[in-house]
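Annex B. Sample input.
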Amino acid sequence: MSYPDKVYFSSAGEVSASFRAADTPPDLGTPGDGMHYLATTELTRGEFGLYRVMMKPRAGGPSAHFHRTISESFYILDGTVRLFNGEKWIEGQAGDFLHVPPGGLHAFRNDADAPAEMLLLFTPGAPREEYFEKIGQIPADERADFLAKHDSYFVD
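Annex B, continued. Sample output.
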């Protein structure tokens, strides 16, 4: 494996970093039960998407699903997050990490009586913000198309 092709060709660096303070309110939801868009696909030019997910106690989560074009990785920051690795449920604790390549079955949920927090990484970057913002509002007759558009395939 080697480094990817160059995408920056100037002989000098540039000022282009992006900073997000820890006390920035969530982009979606509320403090303690919301999502922070740390690095969107637009910001990273499609390289990756990184999100901080804050879940209230007993928040649940999505059922088993897979993606065909993106990998998804989970890093537990605080609390207990149940992670499904395609075979079994694992009680993820702070510092635990799960990587799921394209096609890998997975799910996550907070079934604990305490809040939980994790980082969610998608590679390459995909426009996940619309998915997060609209999934709960999609009428049943439009759901299949919406899920396919967002590379999400749920299994029973």
